[in-house]
Amino acid sequence: MGQLSRVVGCVLGVALLTECSAGPTATPAAAVEDAVRSYSSAYLSGNGQKAHDKLPARCSKVISLEKIKLASAGAAVLYG
């Protein structure tokens, strides 16, 4: 569960940093919300491949595709 916590933290951290960034390159809040919802939907439905594909590069380095697939399969059973 530690790896999963780090991935969730990483995704939420990226969303927060993106949301809090200022200037003309800031990502609109709606885009951040869409990205988080898309990742969450894929992850919680058991689609680990799609969830992993949605991760930012620095987050996908923290956890392997295989681990996301296993965790996502479990999440689908628990929350799906």
Please sum up the structure shown.
This protein is mostly helical and 80 residues long.
Q: What structural class results from the helix and strand content?
A: mainly alpha
SSE arrangement, N to C: HHHHH
Number of helices: 5
Percent of residues in beta strands: under 5%
Oligomer: single chain
Total strand segments: 0
What's the helical proportion of residues?
A: over 70%
Question: What is the C-alpha radius of gyration, as a whole number of Å?
Answer: 13 Å
Average of the residue pLDDT scores = 78
Total count of domains: 1
Question: Segments where pLDDT lies below 50 for 5+ residues?
Answer: none
User: Span between N and C termini?
Assistant: 18 Å
Sequence-ordered SSE layout with sheet pairings:
Elements: H1 2-20, H2 29-44, H3 48-54, H4 57-60, H5 65-79
Give a structural overview.
With 80 residues, the protein is mostly helical. The chain has one domain (2-16, 29-79). The protein has helices at 2-20, 29-44, 48-54, 57-60, 65-79.
